[in-house]
Specification:
Oligomer: homodimer
CATH topology of chain A: UDP-N-acetylmuramoyl-L-alanine:D-glutamate ligase
CATH architecture of chain A: 3-Layer(aba) Sandwich
Number of domains of chain A: 1
CATH superfamily of chain A: Ribokinase
CATH class of chain A: Alpha Beta
Order of helices and strands of chain A: EEEEHEHEEEEHEHHEHHEEEHHH
Strand order of the largest sheet of chain A: 6-5-1-9-10-11-12-13-14
Largest sheet of chain A: 9 strands, mixed
Radius of gyration of chain A: 18 Å
Shape of chain A: globular
Number of helices of chain A: 10
Number of strands of chain A: 14
Largest interface: A-B, 39 and 39 residues
Chain lengths: 307, 307
């Protein structure tokens, strides 16, 4: 049911070995919200843009099934801008430019119509703001999922720890899990992170898939082997959006359903990387998504009977 | 049924972040044969050692269920020796010393009792010798599996290509697949390698699992997330031994059975890395192996019904 997605809506300029873009629409909440909108039409966006942001894109968000009542448009201000260049292996990238613009004094407002939401996706954002959103919810959502990044680990440790304590599911990538714990082994890192507050941890390994941990169990989902990864931007956010979207659709927060949610998230991410930016994420059909999920089933399922 | 395993039997000296060993028993055929011996007691070893090799270890091979009639012991000569040091991440290593010794003029002899074997595992060895073994088989085995390494790609390209043409299943790691094809995408690399002769390709990705390809299908098996990888030496050979061992046991070379074989191979490899050298691979019980396979099932199985 109702899902609030908080995070950045941005302009990105991207260079990959396959080409480059001028300013295109990006941002963590854009990717997460768009992916989630394929699972539930009750996605409520909380973010901020400047008046340079195209109204047609806000219409597109609404058309995708997102409420934009919580999307603030700041007059006389510019939208957050990020520019990056991917290396040949597509697993690493350099940030070329970051202009925070409207993010500098972003104060997330939760409209009344967003209150009492069941699910909350805190996409990557300053941890203080993520915490503020949790505090501004009149009732605590059934499941709070939080994404973050290495930058906050390096610059906002205390605020990050305070926020992590409040969430149910944390998503980080493998190098961030190591940075957070000083453990190279992801199994050891996971155990430490699960001591920090979250009951569930997802470690995203890019082309190597994703791991879901709770204190007793672990589940692994591969990434789909693709001929080419065209542009990895937003893949992690898309994954998280598919994950929480499936959970919001089914309203089932069991570990078994989280496994399914990981597969749906992985399927959505496999679309995201096929083209620049959001291009492949607009106008997907249910048949395309089902076919992709079937590829995951075929990829990993095997049949062993132990006696 | 009968399985011939060809490759090196060696002394290794290993340094990892966890410790170092003096000369211990290693070698590709040692690991492959030992792993396979848990699945079929009809493993026939083809290799060569010097008279410095401990007879007690040859007895151990026999005790594990291997025939050593094809293991030549060269008097007045020394066993192949390799020494290496693993980096902190355990995924990369430096070779400190390689003394080919008896390998320099190794001429693999196939005893009569080894003829008409159904399955042939060509562990990593000079490609000319791997080819010679195939040619010396009076009847062509039902399935020939070949492992190789980057060194032969860099120094013995023509001989390698001639040998690859003759086998059914090739196993390489991800960087070797890229080296062999000049393709970064493993999907594209796999398609090119399947044009070189083999009907099946296994790409080993170490801690990131393994992929099985034929021209139409792909299957992925993860590696088990472990608290610590103590010593990765022999993990790839152990994987291959478990793979061909399961196939020899079941005599089923369908793609579905190869999937199961990949899981058994991955389970065996997950034991191998827990201690130095062969230490963990001696004296495993069926219950331990079953429990490990069950961990793989729990790790990757999920249940999605698409309508």
């Amino acid at each position: 049911m109702s899902l609030v997605v908080v995070g950045t809506v941005a302009f990105d300029a991207i260079q990959t070995p396959f080409g480059k873009t001028d300013k295109i629409i990006g941002g963590a909440a854009t990717y997460s919200g768009t992916a989630a909108s394929y699972f539930t039409k009750n996605v409520k966006l909380v973010s901020v843009v400047g008046d340079d942001f195209p109204p047609a894109m806000i219409d597109q968000f609404r058309k995708s099934g997102m409420s934009t009542e919580g999307l603030q448009v700041k007059h006389g201000a510019k939208t957050f801008f990020w520019s990056g260049r991917y290396h040949e292996d597509m697993n690493t990238r350099d940030t070329l430019d970051t202009q925070l613009n409207v993010l500098l004094d972003f104060d997330p407002v939760i409209p009344d119509s967003y209150q009492d939401c069941e699910f909350l996706m805190l996409s990557n954002l300053m941890p203080q703001l993520q915490k503020k959103v949790i505090e501004r919810m009149r009732t605590r959502p059934k499941l709070v999922v939080m994404d973050t990044m290495n930058f906050w680990m390096e610059t906002q440790w205390d605020a990050l720890m305070e926020t992590i304590q409040l969430v149910d599911v944390l998503t980080v990538n493998d190098s961030e899990a190591r940075l957070l714990t000083k453990e190279y082994s992801l199994v050891k890192a996971a155990q430490k992170i699960l001591q920090m507050g979250p009951r569930y941890l997802i470690i995203k390994k890019g082309e190597h898939g994703a791991l879901l941990f709770n204190k007793e169990q672990v589940f692994f989902a591969p990434a789909l082997p693709l001929e080419d990864v065209f542009d990895p931007t937003g893949a992690g956010d898309t994954f998280a959006g598919g994950f929480i979207g499936h959970i919001a659709q089914t309203r089932d927060i069991s570990f078994d359903n989280m496994k399914r949610a990981i597969i749906f998230g992985s399927a959505m991410a496999s679309f995201c990387v096929e083209k620049f930016g959001l291009e492949r994420m607009i106008g997907l059909t249910q048949a395309e998504i089902d076919e992709r999920v079937q590829q995951f089933i075929d990829l990993v399922q095997f049949d062993i009977e132990l006696v």
